[in-house]
Design a protein that fits this description.
single chain; about 280 residues; mainly beta; RNA Polymerase Alpha Subunit, Chain A, domain 2; 3 domains; five-stranded antiparallel β-sheet; 4 helices; about 50% strand; elongated
Length: about 280
């Protein structure tokens, strides 16, 4: 009996159900709704070739909109964006009113709130500058090595970028030079000049030739006897190019102050003198 009720005139019943759902959907989507959405922003502006935009406007906005359900569904499933027509930009600061934008291709909605409301556009002139001061970035063990930069070629770097940014740049650093496996002597290292700002590009050179003089130091402890026969431990350091001789260490104790003084050969430095209690 129940089966007969459901299956009798099945086609008519399915059509009636479809029409009922269609009427319900139409009635529901004809109502107005208010939602908060986020959309990507496309800015329309003109900028001369000699100008550069320093500020980075937001890539998306938050909108409070009111529209019919059909419009909101269309908005949800379309590649909609918020377009802001700015026009020509000039040097300096321009504050843009974001509430003057629109959503192209979507009609029948009201935008009641835009966040952010204002956006700053900072425009500068693109120019070039020559930097004469270069500082190589060198990383090394400051205890066991001494590094001296004796030349940098070329000694200038030409930059291109915003005028206000270039004014603030007084020197150029290089890519990091790691000195951990170099032997004592003179070397030439090639390193690239490092861009001092994300807005600045280096026109030339591609790399710098940096002359380095590197000295490695040896740290050692030596047991000695003073002239009076007192034992001492000396902590010393010297370049690894020096042939150290223990016989060059001479110590004596001052009879009045009872303080010990020691001397060593050239380039050998005495760091600490301690009595040997053994």
């Amino acid at each position: 009996m129940l089966k007969k009720i459901f299956l009798e005139n099945l086609g008519i019943k399915l059509v009636s159900l479809f029409l009922a759902l269609l009427i319900w959907f139409h009635a529901t989507t004809e109502k107005n709704y208010t939602q908060t959405i986020r959309l990507p922003v496309k800015y329309s502006y003109t900028l001369p070739d000699s100008f550069i935009l320093l500020s980075y406007p937001p890539k998306e906005v938050r909108l409070r909109i009111t529209a019919k359900g059909k419009t909101l569904l269309k908005l949800k499933y379309s590649k909609a964006f918020y377009k802001v027509d700015i026009g020509p930009l000039d040097l300096g600061k321009d504050v843009i009113d974001m509430t003057q934008g629109a959503i192209p291709g979507i009609e029948g909605l009201e935008i009641t709130e835009v966040s952010p409301k204002k956006v700053l556009f900072l425009v500068d002139r693109y120019t070039s500058k020559v930097i004469y001061s270069i500082r190589p970035t060198i990383v090394y063990d400051t205890l066991t090595m001494r590094v001296h930069v004796n030349r940098i070629k070329p000694h200038i770097v030409r930059l291109k970028g915003p005028r206000t940014v270039l004014r603030s740049i007084s020197f150029i650093s290089t890519d990091t030079i790691l000195l951990d496996t170099f032997k004592t002597g003179k070397y030439t290292i090639f390193s690239r000049p490092r861009t001092p700002s994300q807005h600045v590009t280096i026109i030339k050179p591609d790399s710098l030739s940096i002359g380095l003089s590197i000295t490695k130091f040896v740290f050692d402890t030596v047991n000695v006897l003073s002239k009076e026969g007192n034992p001492f431990i000396l902590y010393i350091t010297y370049p690894d190019t020096v042939k150290f001789s223990k016989d060059s260490l001479v110590c004596f104790t001052d009879s009045l102050s009872e303080k010990t003084y020691c001397s060593a050969q050239s380039q050998v430095k005495i760091l600490k003198i301690l009595p040997n209690k053994k």
